[in-house]
Amino acid sequence: MEKKSKYWRRLDNAAKLFTAASTKRDTRVFRFYCELKEEVRPEVLQQAVERAVGTYPLFLSVMRKGMFWNYLERSELRPVVRAEYKEPCSRLYFKDKNALLFEVTYYKNRINFEAFHVLTDGTGAIAFLRELVSDYLYLAYQEEGLAPITLVPDDVTVQDHEVDSFTKYYSPELGKRKQAKPQAHVLKRVRRENGQLQVGEREVSVKNIVERSRELGVSVSVFITTALLLAIHEEMTKVQERYPVVLMVPVNLRNFFSSESMLNFFNWILPKHKFGRGDDSFEAVLTEVRQYFKEELTQEKMAQRMSELISLEVHPVLRFAPADLKNLCIHAGAKFSERESTAVFSNMGPIVLPDSYASYIERFGCFTSTPKLELCVISFRDKMSFGFTSRFDTDNIQRNFYRILEEQKVASGVIEPDFPEPEVPSNLEMTVYKSYTLACLALVLFMAIVGVNLHGQAVAGAADKTAATAKVMTVARALLFAAGGVASMWVASSIGFFKRHNLFKNAVWQLVVVSVASVIWDFVTGWHGWSVDYVIPGVSAAVLLTLIVLARVQRRMPREYMFYFMFTACYGMVLPFILVMTGILHMTWVCMICSASCLLFLVWLISFKGREFREEMQKKFHV
Predict the structure, then answer these.
(1) Cβ atoms within 10 A of the Cβ of 438, count?
(2) What are the tens digits of pLDDT across the range 343-354?
(3) What are the phi and psi torsion angles at 426 (to 5°)?
């Protein structure tokens, strides 16, 4: 198998959605885990992770921001295994942070694999976890005679794994047909304290649930979908029955289109039932759901749904919209589309490993972060694990669901939740920042109030022409300027806080803010021209020098700093040149030196880093 990964790649259609829609509470992170029969050995797990990313190098990617779309870039970072330390499915992607989009942790007998949905989908996650677990077991038990196995066919290359199958099978003609989706019943419950994720798991016998499904003449997915629809309905009022209960059920498109891609390649269907309008028995709902699955799970319907989604992405106007604007629109659209489904049900199917390896494994499980209610199902041998997640402070729907399974002769056993206490509260940093902001605001208001009052008293007593009045006026102005200084400090420190993960971007933002702030202060204090004569060219040169030093000290690759070098050099060349041409400067030589120096730096950049420069421009401005 060829193991050379692309230098960079575009986001697939689903990844673009997840990038824009992810938030602190809806992280778009999922967890797949393997529970072994013995405790995990951390040093062996670290070796196994290194072997697994060698098989799947596309996982060694970080997210970068482009002008029109974000993209994934190959990274020199390597995953470091550590003990589980935070809430499951916590955020993995932080804007501007140079970090991998997956994480491997362990807790007692459990190996956890968590990934940001931009990186891969459930099928890709299962493939990686199978490779990780098989590598771990081989390294741990090879001395006991455990033979190595190969899970990836020899003729499958990394390029096969990196194919964007959405684009490959997109048909413009099919994308033009769009159907309006009716509003679904939306779950409204009291949320848990601090919005924490509630995880509840149970397991059933694969043999029992398959036998019962066959007795009813349906697939396991249809059987579970029906049970979940009925479980949700039991918590609805008569008024709420005016909207149907709709489940979003992801569908693996590899079952309909040939693909070895490890990127996202899935769609979904929306089975539903409108209660209170006829027969709401288990058998009646089951029949309706079975018919819906039969009609919708066809290659033609899947191709149409897939093309409908991609048609917006390739729209000739929308594709050239700035990335930030597109992300805002996509996020708003994702929030609006939440009304189209009540809950989510994902059947990940079975995980299969050779018997020699399976004997060391207790079970597999999976669940995901969600803003509503989601059920994930995965099976291994005769154990099918159900993972419910929500942020609601109730588990009535889950209780109803398992009772319905019991009524259908499918017994379930509780899996006791076992998670370590988080090392650091997830909201600690933001709490400190909010406290700092409140303190700055209080100080600014206090100084402004005192300064305005003193200034008013000084104006009222100005006729006296006394030294006391002049002193009061001076103090008042000093307090008002101090308030402005605190406000300026807060702006600069806020940028430093939110851009702390990327020092290069932090420096560029500070350049812009200091330039604007200096002009404002110069204007407020009577305009002496010092902001344009000295501050703007001086700060431009200082920031450019800072970026050069940062790149050397941190030993960054050219692709990591090239854009910031280019922006700062253009800023320091163009803006001082414009100031010189307008004739508003009192001292022109400082701006002229800055502009000429930045021009020389740009020429050097293009001459000696031309290939990296062109690559960076291609990535940043791809559409």
Answers:
(1) 10
(2) 999 999 999 999
(3) -65, -25
